[in-house]
Amino acid sequence: MKAIRRLINTLREGIKGIWKHRQLGLVSVTSTFFTLFVIGIIIIITVSINSMALQVQGKVNDVEIFIKNGSTEIQIEELRHKIENDGIEKTVKFRSSEEALKLMKDSWGENSELLENIQSDGLLPASFVVQLSDISQAEKFVKSLDGEPIIEDVNYYKDLVNQVYKLSNYSKIFGSILVLVLIFVSLFVISNTIKLTVVSRAHEIGVMKNVGATNNYIRIPFIIEGVFYSVFASALSFLAVYYLYDFIYTKFGVKIIENFSIINLIKPELLKTSLLQIFLSLGFGIGVLGSIFSIRKYLIDREVKYVK
């Protein structure tokens, strides 16, 4: 019963602190809101760029290895064995001359009848179509085939692959750095807000410690206060980011996708749950850590440090 009463008193003190310091809290919520709002925008941009990069990679990660006419079946099988057993994850498909011609006819559509009397022998070379799981391995894979006598040519989108891979990596690195910086800004804002409330109650904290109050009994109300401010700000930020993205997607997204097939915007509803979890987790973590950092210097071995 004593523990329950202590918990109730602690929660009551936390709620009283929220109301008592509501003006400081409003400043904290506003600052944290804008910081988390920017974080949310960065997250959506980074996710969209990575999604676009994955889509592009899925379209250009085919490496086609053309085989010289006159190559024997044994030579072709030896090449297949080398391709399949080089340690790079991939799928390998053999395309015969006949299949290559059929694909060519299909691509010609209504004009394919012009190719009806053309024989496949020697017209188009047979090839291995290799789909790499990791497109960044393309250059390494192609280099491993240097010197193979039956290879006529190797075709893949080298420059585009490299650019897409770099874009994806740069967006992850740049986005992560910005998010970390903004998280530290949020921690600073919450920490200073709680620090001001601690300073205003320094004498009260000293009295509580002199009568035997534990550090946790003193600390928890401030943590409740900090968590409330940051979680409230994160909830507002989530709503602002989500509905802004939903508006942009509804207004412009469909047209962008229709005109630029390479761009793959993620539907807002697919992001909703994950985005909410990220915002609430950030809000809770920032609130707890910011509050702990701000009050810890006042709770050292039952001594209170007053700010002069």
TrEMBL record:
Residues 177-298 form the ABC3 transporter permease C-terminal domain. The chain crosses the membrane at residues 24-49, 173-191, 226-245, 275-295. One of its GO terms (cellular component) is plasma membrane. GO terms for biological process: cell division. It is found in: Cell membrane. Keywords: Cell cycle, Cell division, Cell membrane, Membrane, Transmembrane, Transmembrane helix. Residues 63-154 form the FtsX extracellular domain. It is a multi-pass membrane protein. Gene3D superfamilies: 3.30.70.3040. It holds the Pfam family FtsX. It comes from the Bacteria. Its main location: membrane. Belongs to the ABC-4 integral membrane protein family. FtsX subfamily. Part of the ABC transporter FtsEX involved in asymmetric cellular division facilitating the initiation of sporulation. This is Cell division protein FtsX. It comes from Helcococcus kunzii ATCC 51366.
